[in-house]
Structures are given as C-alpha cells and as structure tokens.
Design goal:
The protein is of the alpha+beta class. The protein has five helices and 25 strands. A hairpin with a 2-residue loop joins β24 and β25. The longest helix is centred in the C-terminal third of the chain and has 14 residues.
Length: 387
C-alpha cells in the first residue's frame, strides 16, 4: 500500500482542540482497536526514527479519523501531531511512518515520510481515533526510555491496544535492524522467548576463545568439577584451552545474571532466595547428562576475579542434538531466581543471537516475565529464609 505521501506540517497546540490527548487521564481510552502500533525504532543514529501501525482486523479500515500525538519530554501537552487522513489499511496490512532524514534502508520501506516524527525513544506517542486513545507508546508526563537504540516489534501474541505501554508486549531486536518493517510477522514466538535461546550446530564449530583473551562465541562440552552457588560452578575444561588462561578446573560465572547470595564466611551474608537458587542450579547440573559452555563473541573471557564468563547449557538427553540443550542462565531468570546483571555496566555483551534476537534481549524478556508475575525474588517471601 505504498503511497509515499511526503508532507510536513506543524500543528499549533491551540488548534488541537479535537485531539484525543487533551485530557490528562486515560478515561477516553477505546479498547479493542483494530488499528494499533506494531513497531517502533529509534536507531543508533538520532535520525533513524520510524513507527509502524497495522490493521489487525479482518476488514479494510480507513484512517481518516486517526492521528498520532507526540509528547516531548515530561510535559502532558502535545508537541505535534501526525494525521493519517487519506490512508486505508487492508487486513493485516501495515503503515510505516518514517522521519524524512532517516537512512535509505528505512525510507525505502516507508509508506509515509514526514519531518514531524519528533521521537527519541523516551517521548510518548499516542495513537488516537477521533477523541479516543486506542494505543500508547511510552507514558504521558514522563520521559522514560521505552525504545531508545532498539527496534521494538510487537509480539504476535499481544496484538492489542494499550492505554499505557506494556514492555512485555514487545520483542527487542537490535537497533538498525529494519527487516521487520512492513509486516506484523515476527521471527520468534512467545514460547520460544520464554524457553530461551537454543544452540545450533554452527555454535559447536566456532572457536571457544580467541587471541586477546576474548570469547569466540563457540560451545564446548565440559564436566562438573564441583558445584557452587546459584550462578557459579567449577567445570573441567580441555587442556587445549590452557593457552587462553583457562585452567583444567576453572570457576565459571554465568553471563548476564546474578542470583541472591548464600553465606560466604563473615564477609557476605545470605540473602532471601540465595540457597533456593543454589539448590535449583545444583539440582539441574547434577541431573544433567551433558553440559556445554559457550562464550560471548568478542567479549572478555574473565571477570575481575579471574572467573570465566560464559553461558551454561544442559540437557537430560543421552545423545543430544544442539537443540536439546537449554540455557541455564536464562532459565534462572524465567523462574524468578536471578536478576539480569552485567559485569561492566557501561559495556555489556550483546552479540550472540538466536532467531535474530540477542541473548541479552531474550534475557530481558524473561526477567520481565518473572517480574510481572512477582515470582520469587520479585515479590514472594522465601519460606526457608530467617527474616
């Protein structure tokens, strides 16, 4: 439905008397809209701005009464509005709206190019039908990062308009990935996200480590030397890795997660759910028939304590294929026994991917799943902890 209608207009606040968003509450929210937001992107470049809406009904919908109001910063007053007059969408069809100075990869997929798409991933966007709110990105009155340097694509399982953004509705693809524009189909399902990333045959052929003491993204089988707490285990590694500083028995810290502490002498006190996380981790590994360790591509091999940083995979299948392994790091997040955690706060790994989604963003999804349900560390009381 490529119209390539290029026009730019600036609507003064005083002329917006008919806008749905003049109210400071959401009393005028219209549920079950057939037209909703389905993608938002503010890429690594500030000019790479794009938003997509779609018709999720079975009917053709005219957009003459629809508009997108944009709030800048922490104000509840509209900064500008984009009217959608003259467009219509068939069933499951999208309308890609792009900033006129975005890169050509975006513009070539755009149906509507405008200079009025003033968004940065923190300024709220309100999709309206007449005087009614039908969907929201962000939160009016707040400048909260919901889509900065990221490509948000709505999950196929959550095609529903919201009166406030629900972060769990969205898959987080890497910034500057434009492959999803123009379609409501995604590369990964909700069940796959919750299960976590899966290994492939290719992962076993990549180097485990590279010169410079960085990971190669490869996976190797190991055995357990002795168990530790919820996010650390000592594994036995092949002697061929000794040139990279990896000992035959090496303490391994699970990448991107942090479980509550158990008692460590007099220096570190036990925390609620710490022993539960330890029991869960150790029970899984004790029963596993095969354990595989994977590094992050081009990310440092060790933390400041000399522990190897890695993803831990296990399977209870005797003769497994790569798809039979499950990522234990991710599983601990999903069940509510770990927090998402990055060793270097300002420089975290985001390279390894599964079905186009980085491990980091899959982990974010699964932590959010546990948070939304108040699982264990996110709200439940540890029955075995002496508060």
């Amino acid at each position: 439905m490529k119209k390539n209608h290029y026009f730019s207009f600036l609507i003064l606040l005083g002329l917006l008397v008919s806008s749905c968003s003049q109210k400071n509450d959401n009393d005028n929210f219209l549920p079950n809209s057939p037209i909703i937001f389905t993608e938002f992107q503010r890429g690594n470049s500030t000019d790479d701005r794009v938003v997509e809406i779609a018709n999720i009904s079975e009917e053709v919908i005219a957009l003459d009464d629809y508009h997108i109001d944009i709030y800048r910063g922490q104000t509840k007053k509209i900064n500008n509005s984009i009217k959608l007059d003259g467009y219509s969408l068939a069933s499951k069809q999208t309308l890609v709206i792009a900033y006129d100075e975005a890169n050509p990869s975006i513009l070539e997929k755009a149906d509507y190019i405008t200079h009025d798409l003033f968004v940065d991933g923190t300024w709220p966007l309100i999709l309206c039908k007449g005087n009614y709110i039908v969907d929201v990105l962000g939160t009016r009155g707040y400048q909260i990062d919901f889509g900065k340097n990221i490509d948000l694509v709505r999950k196929e399982e959550f095609m529903i308009g919201r009166d406030n953004i629900n972060n769990y509705d969205w898959i987080r693809y890497s910034a500057d990935d434009y492959s999803h524009l123009g379609t409501i189909e995604t590369t990964i399902s909700e069940d796959e996200l919750l299960y976590g990333p899966q290994l492939t045959e290719e992962d076993f052929h990549k180097p485990f480590a590279k010169d410079g003491l960085v990971g190669g993204g490869g996976a190797i089988e190991v055995s357990i030397a002795y168990l530790g707490d919820g996010d650390t285990t000592n594994f036995r590694y092949p002697s061929s890795l000794s040139s990279y500083g990896i000992n035959s028995v090496h303490s391994t810290r699970y990448l991107k997660i942090n479980t509550p502490e158990i008692q460590h002498g007099t220096s570190i006190d036990a925390q609620p759910w710490g022993y539960a996380a330890q029991d869960y981790n150790n029970d899984v590994l004790s029963k596993a028939k095969h354990v595989v360790i994977q590094t992050e591509l081009d990310y440092g091999l060790f933390d400041t304590y000399g522990r190897l940083l890695a993803y831990v995979w296990y399977t209870n299948t005797s003769n497994p294929t790569p798809e039979d392994y499950r990522c234990l790091n991710c599983e601990l997040l999903t069940v509510g026994l770990a927090f998402l955690y990055f060793y270097e706060e300002n420089s975290y790994a985001d390279v390894n991917k599964y079905k186009g989604v980085s491990y980091t963003n899959i982990f974010k999804n699964d932590e959010l799943y546990a948070k939304n349900r108040g699982l264990k560390i996110h709200g439940e009381k540890d029955p075995s902890f002496p508060y």
